[in-house]
Design goal:
26-stranded antiparallel beta barrel, 48 strands, mainly beta
Length: about 850
């Protein structure tokens, strides 16, 4: 019964408010009742100045609105009574100074930036002043100003108020939007009132942004207001039509007509997720002030409950930031997950910590994310980041970026920074929340810095041509006990100081720079131990001497030199400049046993061309790599002889070790596969601009000692325009598999291929795709494919995804499936699951989002 009443109410509203088709009634010279006929859309298009054109990617509307040059030349005409008016007609004209004056035929009234046409014009004077007070227009009325046009059966102009009323006609205007730029809007109305250049309202009117020849949708309302000064449109008793079919009724509809922000409900998102079920998100936007706002979103989920999310944004002359709070009470799906997980993972030494954490987690789930950037003046600035969740599985269930395995490290910091010409200084506290989901690869807990103070200074071009620099830090490292054994991690202080002096000698074709640095690092550490990565999961093995008090001092000598050679030559009709830039870099650091020093923040990065000229092969201060080595490399560039644009940039190089190095992160050097080699891998990098649309980039390191690649990455991208994109990427890292991180494992290499596509198959249809395949484990990590349709006034997107969420050491996979449907009525609404937009932007670099 309720459904029947709703259908009846919709029928009454849509049929009693106005006729389904607009009508135009011609002037009846016999003064009899006019005969009204339904006006074809082609006639409305012609009356509104629509000029057809061949559809193309740059004009998917199939036409445009033409305006005379004398109109566009004066975009802001003065009020009609304040300018002289020229009047012409082809028919009889009767002038009476104290009574009505009449002109017939093709009557034209013109002013700079304004043109008025009608079959008949009656000038009505003010009886007190004798000046024209009203102008009545009859038959084929046309009132045009820049970006504004009204046509109709009849009209009246109030000269004293500068207002216009048009009967039985149509209107056209342009409006500005944030995403779609300038949009053309038009509609029909029984009455159209133009009260000012920025304010108009209409009775029994329609509104659409579609082309006037065949509109796909329109809104019909009893009353429609378009207020450019307020930046809002309001439709009362509005019905949205798709073609001639009513879709839904709203007693009140408010929508923006420019880029300004207003409080009110935003259009909802809806969709389906394999873990959360069906959901709908209803956001309400609070425009609190020009420099801060708030968005409250309520999201009922069929499998979980109701989530409340609040996002607050602010901007001041000195700082900007966001605060987002989310809360979901009584998550039903999470309760079921805990029961099922207890059955899948019986208690054991390995599983017990995971299960204890899971069972102690509350079903009331939430998160906080706060970020603030502050700039006090040109030298001082500060940043604050707070990121916390209630349980280890929060991002697995609600993370916004599903293109990779969900993040398990949440960063928190508060820092203050100083920067001047010669000095930089910073102080910070830094902490991490590490998540340990039982169904994902174990994430090692990170060290907190409570606090850290660091500085850097540089004094180039000093006396006698010398350059001086220095950097240093003091940091207190703190760590929780081992996740599995509860053994304390090393904790304590590290002080680092590294002064350097160099003597740069440069000219236009060569350079030579000898440099000497002293690396001094002091440790005061408790609970010293060794991280054993030979077992999974890795654990801490306590040291026989748990308290470490030590100062490590090492000299670092380097000699860096190179040449710059170039040659100009012609190739066909084009001129090119090619450079050849050979470079030698000698490095000496004496060996010193550092195995007793704990690893706080130091790693050994994959070998690449950039590693050739670094003074420490490690990233971090806990290890200083010993070295007696010579790096040999060169770079060549191919430049356009006319524009100077770079066509090719290629580099190649390697390191010769005069003696093998002995310093490693771990005591048995299992982290360094090249420990016994005399020659490093041959590293290279290439950027090749094949043509303006096609780019090839490559980074590779070939290990001749093992006759295999150490690591490489290759990307080929073809992008002829904003809507067309083809991209293919291959990545290989020896020993870089996050699932099998043990360097002694024969299956610890990492290989992945990624293919991305966005391509129009017609003027209106686009196909989207992304395929991410893990070659190392022989399974895909991402399936993403979809279709987009866009025309002049609406667009729709359907995306399906199946994305790897977790993979554990037993190669058990957990996928998350999601479907995204988004629908846009250009200039009116965007409806659908906005996660589809972020998913595409994250998966396809360079993707142009139309939503």
């Amino acid at each position: 019964m309720r459904r029947l009443l709703s259908i009846l109410l919709l029928y009454l509203l849509t049929n009693s408010a106005f006729s389904a088709e607009p009508q135009l009634c011609p002037i009846n010279p016999t003064n009899q009742k006019p005969t009204c006929v339904t006006t074809p859309m082609s006639d409305w298009a012609k009356l509104l100045g629509w000029t057809p054109s061949t559809p193309s990617p740059s004009n998917i509307c199939g036409g445009y609105y033409a305006e005379p040059a004398e109109i566009t030349a004066h975009p802001n005409p003065l009020p009609i009574a304040d300018m002289q008016m020229d009047i012409t007609s082809t028919g009889p004209a009767v002038y009476s100074p104290n009574n009505f004056s009449t002109l017939e035929g093709d009557v034209t009234l013109t002013q700079p930036g304004r043109a008025i046409n009608a079959d008949k014009v009656i000038l009505i004077p003010n009886p007190d002043t004798g000046q024209t007070a009203f102008i009545d227009l009859q038959g084929h009325v046309r009132y045009q100003e820049a970006s504004r046009l009204m046509v109709g059966e009849s009209a009246r102009i109030d000269m004293e108020k500068s207002t216009l009323v048009v009967n039985k006609g149509a209107y056209h205007m342009t409006r500005q939007t944030e995403k779609n730029g300038v949009l053309n809007v038009w509609g029909t109305a029984d009455e159209g009132h133009r009260d000012s250049p920025t304010y108009s309202w209409y009775k029994r009117a329609t509104y659409t942004t579609c082309q006037p020849t065949d509109p796909s949708w329109n809104v019909k309302s009893k009353n429609l207001t378009l207020d450019k000064e307020a930046g809002r449109g309001v439709a009362k008793h509005a019905v949205l039509y798709a073609k001639k079919v009513p879709i839904f009724y709203l007693p009140y509809m408010s929508f923006p007509i420019d880029k300004r922000r207003y409080s009110g409900f935003l259009y909802p998102d809806f969709g389906y997720d394999s873990q959360s079920g069906s959901f709908i998100s209803v956001p309400y936007y609070f425009n609190l002030a020009p420099n801060y706002d708030d968005t409250l979103t309520i999201t009922p989920m069929s499998k979980r409950g109701v989530m409340v999310d609040n996002l607050f944004r602010y901007l001041t002359p000195h700082n900007s930031g966001t605060l987002e709070l989310s809360y979901l009470p009584g998550d039903r799906a999470f309760e079921n997950f805990k029961i099922q997980t207890a059955q899948l993972y019986p208690p054991s030494y390995y599983n017990t910590p995971f299960l204890n954490d899971l069972n102690s987690s509350s079903n009331n789930r939430g998160s906080i994310a706060f970020h603030d950037d502050t700039r006090f003046n040109e030298h001082w600035s500060a940043v604050v980041d707070i990121n916390r969740v209630t349980d280890d599985y929060y991002f697995q269930d609600f993370g916004s970026n599903f293109t990779t395995v969900s993040t398990n490290q949440l960063f928190n910091q508060a820092a203050i920074n100083y920067q001047a010409e010669h000095w930089q200084w910073s102080g910070r506290v830094e902490d991490w929340q590490t998540l340990h989901p039982i169904d994902q690869t174990f994430a090692q807990d990170q060290y907190s810095r409570l606090p850290q103070f660091s500085f850097a200074t540089s004094w180039p071009d000093s006396a006698y041509g010398l350059s001086y620099s220095a950097n240093g830090e003091w940091v207190n490292f703190a760590h929780s006990n081992d996740f599995f054994t509860n053994v304390p991690y090393p904790n304590g202080n590290r002080i680092h100081f590294n002064p350097q002096v160099s003597f740069p000698m440069n000219n236009s074709g060569a350079f030579l720079t000898p440099a000497l640095a002293i690396d001094m690092t002091a440790y005061d550490v408790n609970n010293n131990g060794v991280l054993n990565i030979g077992v999974y999961p890795p654990t801490i093995v306590p040291d026989a001497n748990p308290n470490l008090r030590e100062i490590r001092t090492l000299p670092i000598f380097s000699l860096d030199g190179g040449l710059y050679l170039d040659k100009f030559y012609d190739f066909g009709k084009n001129g090119f400049q090619q450079t050849l830039e050979p470079r030698l870099f000698y490095l000496y650091v004496p060996p010193e046993d550092q195995n007793n020093i704990p690893i706080f923040d130091t790693t050994l990065p994959p070998f690449s061309f950039n590693e050739l000229y670094r003074t420490n092969r490690f990233m971090g201060y806990d290890r200083v790599g010993d070295a007696n080595q010579l790096s040999m490399g060169f770079t060549t560039r191919l430049l356009d002889g006319y524009s100077g644009a770079e066509k090719i940039n290629a580099s190649l190089g390697a390191i010769y070790y005069f003696r093998k190095h002995t310093v490693c992160i771990y005591e048995n050097c299992q982290d360094d596969p090249a420990i016994d080699d005399r020659i490093s891998p041959i590293a290279g990098q290439l950027t090749y601009i094949i043509n303006p649309a096609t780019t090839l980039t490559a980074n590779a390191a070939w290990d001749a000692n093992q006759s295999q690649m150490n690591n490489d990455a290759l990307t080929l991208q073809y992008r002829p325009d904003a809507k067309r994109l083809l991209s293919a990427t291959y990545t290989y890292i020896q020993g870089g598999d996050p699932i099998n991180p043990n360097p002694e494992s024969p299956e610890n290499n990492f290989q992945r291929i990624n293919l991305s596509l966005t391509w129009p198959i017609t003027e209106n249809w686009n196909v989207i795709g992304n395929w991410n395949y893990n070659i190392s484990h022989a399974h895909p990590e991402t399936y993403l494919y979809g279709l987009e349709y866009e025309n002049c006034c609406w667009a729709v997107r359907l995306v399906s995804s199946r994305i790897l969420e977790a993979e554990n050491v037993n190669d058990e996979l957990t996928f998350r499936s999601a479907y995204y449907l988004q629908f846009v009525l250009k200039g009116l609404a965007s409806v659908g699951q906005t996660g589809g937009s972020s998913l595409l932007r994250d998966s396809i670099p360079g993707y142009t989002d139309i939503f």
